[in-house]
Amino acid sequence: MLGYRGSARLTRRIDRGIKLFLGGAAPLLVLSGGGTGPVPEAEIMRQMALARGVPEAALLVEPESRDTVENAWQAARLLRPRGGRKVLLVNDRAHLPRAALLFRLAGLRVAGWVGVPPPSIRWEIAAIVRECVPLPRSLARALLRQLPAIG
Questions:
Q1: How distant is the alpha carbon of residue 19 from its chain centre?
Q2: CA 135 to CA 94: how far, in whole Å?
Q3: Helices marked H in the chain
Q4: What is the pTM of this model?
Q5: Do 3 and 35 meet the contact criterion of CB atoms below 8 Å apart?
Q6: What integer pLDDT is reported at residue 9 of this predicted model?
């Protein structure tokens, strides 16, 4: 699950991820995001997951990433030692296509994605338009990270 600085959207994401986990859709929850506040988004999500009955052993917490490119690479770093290469992404629907592409470029297989419903259709349209802005930069950064592995 990717973090978000707004508490309502972060809560919707973690609720959806926990529901999937408790339903058996995934063996672990990867909580990713540093954020800009005093407590990393990943830590906030960890506390919420524990309060909702998810065991600590089922949580991988990544509190350093600042954006989706770093979310993807840090998630891959955490999963690799455990033999994990497949993820189910949980995020806002408008953000999922770009996130899925970046997670694939980080070497993970995106088995599926679950979009958290938006607060309104107007919000979702604006979010889709906003997603177009960071796409070229995100792709460039992700591809540049791969160069040492290619060479």
A1: 16
A2: 12
A3: 7-22, 41-51, 68-79, 96-105, 121-132, 135-150
A4: 0.84
A5: yes
A6: 79
